[in-house]
Specification:
Elements (H helix, E strand, L loop, with lengths): L5 E5 L4 E5 L3 E2 L1 H4 L7 H13 L4 E5 L10 H12 L8 E5 L4 H13 L2
Parallel strand pairs: 3-4, 4-5
Antiparallel strand pairs: 1-2
Length: 112
């Protein structure tokens, strides 16, 4: 991938370069019958390997009652393929419901 196809995200402690095209993960878990882990993992690996290194997930990208299916899928993916964690930038939307906001804040603060 040429430099023109990348963008730089500057944070207070780290600068990260990602591909201009990202990969949205909602379609993997946001329906009544999510795709299999095998299919999802292959899609995620293919996207990252092709340069779509900005992954977009959501705390609420799951079909009720498992509204957190997207995050669980990512947990299984990075557990199986830990080498991909350093190859991508993960953006996660959250805080859709009050309970979700409180849980996210508690879990996030526990990791600080």
């Amino acid at each position: 991938m040429s430099q023109a196809q990348n963008i730089t995200i500057k944070g207070p402690n780290k600068t990260t370069t990602v591909g201009r095209i990202g990969y949205g993960l909602m379609g993997l878990t946001g329906k009544s019958v999510p795709v299999s882990d095998e299919q999802a993992f292959e899609a995620i690996k293919t996207a990252i390997d092709a340069g779509a290194t900005f992954l977009n997930a959501g705390e609420f990208y799951g079909y009720p009652p498992d509204t957190e299916a997207n995050l669980k899928l990512l947990n299984r993916f990075f557990t199986k393929y830990p080498e991909y964690a350093s190859k991508c930038f993960l953006s996660v939307k959250g805080a859709f419901w009050k309970e979700s906001v409180l849980r996210t804040m508690e879990q996030g603060c526990a990791n600080w």
